[in-house]
Amino acid sequence: MEERKKRMLSGIQPSGDLHLGNYLGAIKNWAVRSEEYDCFYFMADMHTITVRQDPAELRRRSLNQLAQYIACGLDPEKNVLFLQSHVPAHAQLAWVLDCYTMFGELSRMTQFKDKSSKFHDNINAGLFTYPVLMAADILLYQPDFVPVGEDQKQHVELTRNIAQRFNSVYGDVFTIPEPLISKTGARIYGLTTPEAKMSKSVPEGCVFIMDSPDDIARKFRKAVTDSDTERCVRYDKEAKPGVANLMNIYSTLTGKSFEEIEKEFDGKGYGVFKPAVGEVVASCLRPIREEAGRLIKDKAYLDEVYRSGAEKASWVANKTLRKVYKKVGFYQGLK
Ligand code: TRP
Question: How far apart are alpha carbons 279 and 158 in whole angstroms?
Answer without folding.
Answer: 43
